């Protein structure tokens, strides 16, 4: 019996489960009987992409990633695909029903702060200069999002609200729902959970809040320095870059 892939490490499982809420997917493709895990990111997020690939070595073949042609937004993409494994099929059975990802507490309860940081870095965004946050959960039906909101509140004490958005896709206006963190205090509470697990410096912009008040700014930067594995010099470098981008954006609107 080949025992090379006889189990998934906790870390691998945490990354996969967090990714399923974000940019990852589990699928059973013909003619294979077992599931594969896949995801993709823009080349602009290559540090984060290759960090993920490294965490998933135990389910990866020799040629597990490749570059894809630019997508509809003109960006070159990096794509990862795992081996087809029985252990991934077990996760597939846990998280899917009728070939669709279904949100259930029985597998949400297996998420860890590492899973949450993967979800946030995949599909979370800071809004309003960092005064609010949003999970882009467009693909999940409303009932699933209610379960997610209840889970975040009960397990992580993170208060989120479900709000409808209208977006035009393929020329047709459609309604979707997203999870919103609507206050600065609630946002900071959630970010403090995931700060110790931010894996690469290039993703710090997703946790750096901007303040006009210099004392408030210093207070948050000190929090990021204390909780993340990165030096103050590195964090302040990304703070300066983010402020410059924000100023350019303000001039455009």
UniProtKB/TrEMBL annotation:
<protein>
    <recommendedName>
        <fullName>Homing endonuclease LAGLIDADG domain-containing protein</fullName>
    </recommendedName>
</protein>
<dbReference type="GO" id="GO:0004519">
    <property type="term" value="F:endonuclease activity"/>
</dbReference>
<feature type="domain" description="Homing endonuclease LAGLIDADG">
    <location>
        <begin position="14"/>
        <end position="183"/>
    </location>
</feature>
<dbReference type="InterPro" id="IPR027434">
    <property type="entry name" value="Homing_endonucl"/>
</dbReference>
<dbReference type="InterPro" id="IPR004860">
    <property type="entry name" value="LAGLIDADG_dom"/>
</dbReference>
<dbReference type="Pfam" id="PF03161">
    <property type="entry name" value="LAGLIDADG_2"/>
</dbReference>
């Amino acid at each position: 019996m080949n025992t090379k892939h006889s189990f998934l490490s906790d870390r691998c499982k945490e990354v996969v489960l967090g990714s399923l809420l974000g940019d990852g997917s589990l699928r059973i493709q013909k003619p294979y009987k077992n599931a594969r895990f896949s995801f993709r990111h823009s080349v602009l997020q290559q540090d984060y992409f290759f960090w993920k690939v490294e965490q998933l070595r135990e389910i990866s073949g020799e040629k597990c990633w490749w570059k894809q042609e630019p997508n509809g937004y003109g960006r070159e993409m990096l794509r990862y695909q795992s081996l087809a494994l029985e252990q991934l099929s077990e996760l597939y059975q846990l998280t899917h029903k009728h070939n669709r990802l279904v949100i259930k507490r029985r597998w949400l309860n297996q998420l860890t702060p590492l899973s949450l940081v993967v979800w946030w870095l995949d599909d979370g965004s800071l809004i309003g200069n960092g005064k609010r946050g949003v999970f882009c959960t467009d693909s999940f039906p409303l009932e699933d999002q209610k379960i997610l909101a209840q889970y975040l509140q009960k397990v992580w004490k993170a208060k989120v609200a479900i709000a409808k958005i209208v977006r035009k896709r393929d020329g047709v206006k459609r309604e979707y729902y997203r999870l919103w963190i609507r206050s600065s205090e609630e946002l900071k509470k959630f970010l403090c959970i995931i700060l110790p697990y931010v894996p690469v410096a290039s993703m710090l912009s997703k946790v750096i809040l901007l303040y006009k008040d210099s004392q408030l700014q210093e207070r948050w930067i000190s929090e990021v320095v204390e909780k993340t594995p990165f030096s103050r010099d590195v964090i302040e470098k990304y703070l300066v870059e983010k402020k410059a981008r924000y100023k350019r954006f303000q001039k455009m609107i």
